Amino acid sequence: MSKKLFIETLGCAMNVRDTEHMIAELNQKEPYELTEELSQADLIIINTCSVREKPVAKLFSEIGLFNKHKKEGAKIGVAGCTASHLGEEIIKRAPSVDFVLGARNVSKITQVVDKKHAVEVSTDYDESTYAFGEYRTNPFKAMVNISIGCDKSCTFCIVPHTRGDEISIPSDLLVQEITKAVDSGAKEVMLLGQNVNNYGRRFGSSDEKIDFTGLLQKISKIEGLERIRFTSPHPLHMDDAFLEEFASNPKICKQIHVPLQSGSTALLKAMKRGYSKEWFLNRCEKIRTLCPEATISTDIIVGFPGESESDFEDTMDVLEKVRFEQMFSFKYSPRPYTEAAEFENQIDDAIAGERLSRLQKRHTQILDEIMDAQLGVVHKVYFDELKPGNRAAGRSDDGKLVFVEGSEELLGKIVDVQITKTSRGALDGVVITE
Ligand code: SAH
Ligand code: F3S
């Protein structure tokens, strides 16, 4: 009988892919069956995120809880960014943890899984870190890392510390990997990296000359691949050639993440983001002009050290001007190994909280207007999941979640759907062609 694996994935898309990668590697050693019942698992893995403090604090109470409910002899492993930044300290604070595996080291899972108190958190460059695992949660979609690590030094961000230097993966390997996924039924690929449009700046051993735009052109030649998504690009590297490729290439889904962080040029400088409010607005205007059907999503941090009311007004102003279709917003959280944690002018939590709720309230109004306007619109929806009650779920080209009545025969198909009902988070519709 195969062993059972319970795995919890927190944080970003990179972590979701790392989880697949760990499952693939484990299965190469011996078969594991996934379970959602903690008490039945032989192996429990928490794939952590350390971008903000809250989830890190939660980790230790969760380990305690898991240790109490696990079956006898079951192992607990902590993987991901918190594993990278706390390393051995995790085992010191929670000796019930059997192994610690950093975000850069997931391909080494089989080497640590049977070693009591193993800690593998090096961020040195290592070829094996991009050996691709053969496992996908969803057969209709593939996630592929195009680069690992991050070379930026945004002053609020712990990721360069946890994931190490940025290294691009040779394009031929990527084409091979995506072709394999397409051959086994995936029509869509999500290209992943902390900074995807910095692709090609540095390879491990290859001396290939290619940038992100070139990679998109190369990947779109793969026969049978119909949709390309990517996350996350950096606003600084959104040159005209890239935006023109985004707008004109029919395989590229018209959904783009443009992480703002702050609308204030002074704060952007303190964050070391490398662009100004004007540049950001100019890039979004260019997207709206070249590609009016595109949706733009963003990340915003509120209460970064030194944020004045007028800095915050700049953020609100960008929201008014761009009208993001999706916004992920957070209160600034000081992180270890970051410059901003040492800044003197930290913002009072109550002020940050009030600004965050003002921002979110205004965004909700904008979102309601955007979603209400969807009534009657026809979207091409790629169905990849069944839901209870004879419903199928999929994404429109511009990234909206759409439900229709339907069953298996819709899965893996891209179908025209007319929207009949709207809400803030999703749309309902009817299939109009097949
Ligand atoms: N380059 C990555 C960023 C990873 S972190 C990407 O574009 O996906 C994801 C988001 O978390 C960031 O865009 C930022 O908005 C938020 N974040 C990072 N560090 C933070 C901190 N210290 N406090 C609050 N939010 C933070
Ligand atoms: Fe973090 Fe900035 Fe890189 S947000 S992941 S340091 S681009």
TrEMBL record:
Residues 372-433 form the TRAM domain. InterPro entries: Elp3/MiaA/NifB-like_rSAM, Methylthiotransferase, Methylthiotransferase_CS, Methylthiotransferase_N, Methylthiotransferase_N_sf, MiaB_methiolase, rSAM, rSAM_horseshoe. Residues 136-369 form the Radical SAM core domain. GO terms for cellular component: cytosol. Its main location: cytoplasm. Its EC number is 2.8.4.3. Catalyzes the methylthiolation of N6-(dimethylallyl)adenosine (i(6)A), leading to the formation of 2-methylthio-N6-(dimethylallyl)adenosine (ms(2)i(6)A) at position 37 in tRNAs that read codons beginning with uridine. This is tRNA-2-methylthio-N(6)-dimethylallyladenosine synthase. The lineage of its organism: Bacteria, Pseudomonadati, Campylobacterota, Epsilonproteobacteria, Campylobacterales.
